[in-house]
Specification:
Layout lengths: L1 H28 L5 E7 L8 H14 L1 E5 L8 H13 L4 E5 L7 H7 L4 E5 L13 E5 L1 H14 L8 E6 L6 H13 L5 E7 L6 H10 L4 E4 L2 H13 L6 E5 L3 H9 L4 E5 L1 H16 L8 E4 L1 E5 L6 H7 L5
Helix pairs in contact: 2-10, 5-6
Length: about 325
Amino acid sequence: MRGNRFFTVALAISASVILLLSAARVISDTEKPRFRVSVVVDESGSGRWLPFREGITQAAKDNNIELSFVTTDALVSVQQEGRIIAREIQSGADGVIAGFRSSSGTAEMLRGFMGQTLLELVDTEVESEGTNDSIGLVSADNAAIGQALCRMLLSDLPEGAAAKRLGLLCGRQQQFSVQERLSTFSEELKTGIVDKRWEIPDIEDGKEALARKCAEAPVDILVAMDNASMECAMEYLEENGKRNILLYGVGNSEKLVYGLDSGLIRGMIVPEEFSMGYHALSDLAARLNHRISVPFRREIGFRAVRRDTMYLEENQKILFPRIA
């Protein structure tokens, strides 16, 4: 009898522990988010933000954050973006993640936001004098990206062959990140293997400017410094049947992944933008929770990907990120 009573008591204790654990899990799962974070980037519906958005969404789940991904069209100025951020702060955002379309003219605006909310920048450095380095940044090493892009291109060109004619799409040069890529790419390119025929300073004119340049001075190679200019070049080649022109560049959108898979793109540098989104929100959440030792500068990686390497496991992780 004593043994039966002991077994019954042990069973009751075990059942109670299981019930308590289940209740704790339910409470945890239904716990209201402690903080609200808004995300403001240029042209938020662009495919280039998809991996970034998936990373942010995963981090919001992991850190119990209410996330607001603000819908934007192509922004025309940093002042417009500043007004959107101010509106989000007034609406109760505890923190804001921002990717500025231009790196200049932002310092005074950022100083005005200090004390109102916590800020985390992504993708590019901006002018931030007077903010005491209190604003976080998650970005790739863009100088290294420019070098890697040039070395990928040069490795495909046989030694001793006639110099290849190159056209350069400089991308959005208002951003320090794209300026860095272009600078180191150009430094690495100082060789007789390539003859740079022309460059397009910005891609605002789109395919019309590219078609005009190619008609005036035909090229063998196109190189694009950012996702938008890369998509523009790919569309131009596809629509005009110019598959003989080799295309290289920097990007990560689904459209570019298709171009890589179909052979329109010869090689591409792909920043790990899922990681950029995940770390941006996770670091901001840590600061909102007053955790110490949170880095204010975090560097993400990148991969040099070709058609024949895009389905390697390490490349699939950044080309086809999925929320867990």
